[in-house]
Amino acid sequence: MIVEVHSKNQIAEILTMFSGCLYTLSTGQVSVEEIADKFYKYARVIVYRKDDEFAGFAGFYCNDKKDKTAYISLIAVDSNHRNSGIGKALVNEVVKTAKESGMNIIKLEVRKNNQNAVLFYKSLGFMMSDDTSEESYYMYLNIIESA
Predict the structure, then answer these.
(1) Which DSSP category does 145 fall into?
(2) Is the pLDDT of residue 28 over 70?
(3) CB-hemisphere CA count at 13 Å for 68?
(4) Fewer Cβ atoms within 10 Å of its own Cβ: the N or the C terminal residue of the chain?
């Protein structure tokens, strides 16, 4: 079951549980408190609960009304629950929420050395952007429904 998390303390708790998956592309270090504060103020956080435990989560932004672009900032699935459809369910929920928020595109950044993630996003229809950095690829998904 996917539920949205609304309190800063709950967001911090989830980030702490998945802290092994959290890093920045530039420094490799993150502050759970800083991310929790930023997510609480500006983002949406959803969690996948399985058998009364948190099996995965996604933190994403749907507030770029000008460019109508949503951004997946963090997505993680507990190692015990990988390859069970949880990541796909989380991305599908992000797509649904982004559409409901009036977004047309979802963007994300993924490390070049994380080929499993690249293949995962490609399997869901994400395409590579022309923009890349030394460390990462940028990917996007057009969510406008064809007429």
Answers:
(1) P
(2) no
(3) 11
(4) C
Q: Write out the two tokens for 67.
A: 């460019």
Contacts of 86 (CB under 8 A, 6+ apart): 48, 50, 55, 56, 77
pLDDT one-digit tens code per residue, 51-91? 888 899 999 999 999 999 999 999 999 888 888 999 999 99
Structure tokens that stand for 62 in this block: 């749907």
Q: What are phi and psi of 29, to 5 degrees?
A: -115, 150
Are the C-beta atoms of 19 and 11 separated by less than 8 Å?
Answer: no
pLDDT of residue 25: 47
Q: Domain locations in the chain?
A: 2-108
pLDDT band at 92 (very low <50, low <70, confident <90, very high): very high
Topology annotation, domain 2-108 = Aminopeptidase (3.40.630)
What pLDDT does residue 34 have? 85
- DSSP strand pairing (53-64 vs 2-5): unpaired
pTM for this one? 0.88
